[in-house]
Design goal:
EC number: 2.6.1.11
Order of helices and strands: EEEHHHEHEHHEHEEEHEEEHHEEHEEEHH
Largest sheet: 7 strands, mixed
CATH class of the largest domain: Alpha Beta
Binding site for pyridoxal 5'-phosphate: 96-97, 123, 208-211, 266
Bound molecules: pyridoxal-5'-phosphate
Catalytic activity: N(2)-acetyl-L-ornithine + 2-oxoglutarate = N-acetyl-L-glutamate 5-semialdehyde + L-glutamate
Radius of gyration: 21 Å
Distance between the termini: 36 Å
Number of domains: 2
Mean pLDDT: 97
Strand content: 15-25%
Shape: globular
CATH architecture of the largest domain: 3-Layer(aba) Sandwich
Structural class: alpha/beta
Keywords: Amino-acid biosynthesis, Aminotransferase, Arginine biosynthesis, Cytoplasm, Pyridoxal phosphate, Transferase
Pfam family, one: Aminotran_3
Number of strands: 17
Strand order of the largest sheet: 4-12-11-10-7-5-6
């Protein structure tokens, strides 16, 4: 197909025309179960009625006001975010990368130090600072030299972090579950160790919850699975259920670091996106909802372990809540295409991991159907072909 777009994506042969809940419909009227949620974005399912209603209502009053003026809906969304977070105040932007840029700038200005420790296989976004934070050669290739701000160390390796710390270390930045890197959860001891190191050396802890935040793992934020309270948390993907919005949530000690004029954005905190975010947060943080996410996540993992865990092509199933990885022994791209052809949309994470991020509203029936299709697909692959 002739396209006027830059070829920055290798696109699947699928043109979406309609969506509803977990279902995506293509141009031929074929229906798919969406277990990617638009890469962890439409966490309440496509076009959730509460979110749609909130957006439509907001469209009737105002669409954009400059951040030079008060914006009451931003205040309300910020309150909802801090109620569930150990942070105390919020800066709104438009994406995950921008949230991480804000986090990096805040940490450097607050400490007057320049170095930030980040991790191999991490992913923090595609803008210059966020790309530099990302510990993956393939993301940085061709764009060098990178900022010399970041020291990359192996994930879950406390000694390596210890050795990388010096008097110029401003912060440690990490995902609680590495998403793009392969759905790799941080170990409990590693995180307790980091907390100690940060305290001892007066280093800020930045947690990138762009993918794991807003209920994805069955807790408000993935760091809630661990006994920590980060200094800065970045969020984006699931916050607007499809509308572009990102944010950092930071501790009160950092309140005065960004004074007026030091960091800003034209679109950040856009009222339409805020209306969506407000509806999302009210829904996700209502009593009992995350309990259900946790139960559905357990069910999904149980079913996967039972039905596909022992297949020769599969080496490991792991994750938290509704963020689950199926690690395989070979490249998974053809399996992902086959799953699509059978009517199930899933993601990869690295080359060998099939990543599932179904909507938090997914039903047990939909989980059963998805696991059935995954079984039917992966059973066709014997171990020796791909070892
Ligand atoms: C997707 C993602 C980002 C980048 O978010 P964008 O909105 O694409 O800029 C950053 N960090 C993590 C952990 C992500 O998953």
């Amino acid at each position: 197909m002739e396209s006027a777009l830059l070829p920055t994506y290798k696109r699947f042969d699928l043109s979406v025309t309609n969506t509803n809940g977990t279902i995506v419909e293509d141009i031929n009227g074929k229906k798919y179960l969406d277990f990617g949620s638009g890469i962890g974005v439409c966490n309440l399912g496509h076009r959730h009625p509460d979110v749609q209603q909130a957006i439509e209502t907001q469209l009737q009053s105002y669409w954009h006001v400059s951040n030079l003026y008060h914006n009451p809906i931003q205040e309300e969304v910020a309150k909802l975010l801090v109620q569930q977070n150990s942070g105390d105040f919020v800066f709104f932007c438009n994406s995950g990368a921008e949230a991480n840029e804000a986090a990096i700038k805040l940490a450097r200005k607050a400490t007057g130090k320049t170095k930030i420790i980040s991790f191999n296989q991490s992913f923090h976004g595609r803008t210059f600072g966020a790309m530099a934070a990302t510990g993956q050669e393939k993301i940085q290739r061709g764009f060098g030299p990178m900022l010399d701000t970041f020291d990359y160390v192996p994930y879950n390796d406390l000694d390596a972090v210890h050795q990388a710390i010096d008097e110029n270390t401003a912060a440690i930045m990490l995902e609680m579950i590495q998403g793009e890197g392969g759905v790799i959860p941080a170990k409990q001891q590693f995180i307790s160790g980091l907390r100690q190191l940060c305290k001892q050396h007066n280093i800020l802890l930045i947690v990138d919850e762009v993918q794991t935040g807003i209920g994805r793992t069955g807790k408000p934020f993935a760091y809630n699975h661990y006994d920590i309270s980060p200094d800065i948390v970045s969020v984006a993907k699931g916050l607007g259920n499809g509308l572009p919005v990102g944010a950092i949530i930071a501790k009160h000690e950092l309140y005065n670091v960004f004074g007026p004029g030091s960091h800003a954005t034209t679109f950040g905190g856009n009222p339409i996106c805020m209306a969506a975010a407000q509806a999302v947060l009210q829904h996700v943080f209502q009593s009992g909802f995350l309990q259900q996410v946790e139960e559905k996540g357990d069910y999904l993992q149980e079913q996967l372990i039972k039905k596909v865990g022992n297949l020769p092509f599969v080496s490991k199933i792991r994750g938290k809540g509704l963020m689950v990885g199926i690690e395989c022994i070979g490249d998974v791209s053809s399996q992902i295409t086959q799953l699509m052809q059978k009517g199930l949309l899933v993601l990869s994470a690295g080359q060998r991991v099939i990543r599932l991020l179904p909507p938090l509203t997914v039903t047990e029936k939909e989980i059963d159907a998805a696991v059935g299709l995954i079984h039917e697909t992966l059973i066709a692959y014997p171990a020796f072909l791909h070892s």
